[in-house]
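Running this now, will post back.
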Amino acid sequence: MATLNERQESILKDLTRRYPSLEPVCGSIIEVYGIMEECFARGGRLLIAGNGGSCADAEHIVGELMKGFVKARELPKELKERLAAEDEENGMRLADCLQGGLPAIALNGHPGLSTAFANDVDADMVYAQQVCGYGTEGDVFLGISTSGNAKNVDYAVTVARAKGMKVVGLTGKDGGRLARRAHKAVVVPEQETFKIQELHLPVYHALCLLLEERFFGEERQE
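Update: finished.
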């Protein structure tokens, strides 16, 4: 299990204070964080997929990881200098405005590819096709499914595992196939879809905060 620093521990304490029902799954949250942390530390990327509200959650997670969430994420000094040297007119503005990001892709965000594959091959395999094309060994696939049994997410899990990727999940109820096949899943303690989704949000916010603290904490802003 990943080791958390003091600030990261406070993130989880605040999570369980606000959502006491999530205390039993804190261990799972830490394990999922550890898998993601290892991926990003090695230069990998996170691929995310879900349907309906979980599709929107996938986009939400990308928004928190690819730019500043609660920290400014100032660029490294060396990159700022290279931007300034590259473009005398706009380089400094880019250096001041751009933020550090953790590479994450929501697989629902490619309508041209998705509709072409759905029309030409099989709509249920759209996410699997993208994992096949984007994913490499060491990357992580995050499947989000309230039941854990979404067919298109399950196909993507198969491809991810075959390519040597780690699989993590966000689900509910009994976890379904996703919880059984993932390397680790957070199975929130609810049965109804909307209630599961309501708990997914604070879980993935906590994961994003933990990751931001790890890669963009104050000591890393120098």
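Strands lie at 46-50, 104-106, 140-144, 166-171, 184-187. More later if anyone needs it.
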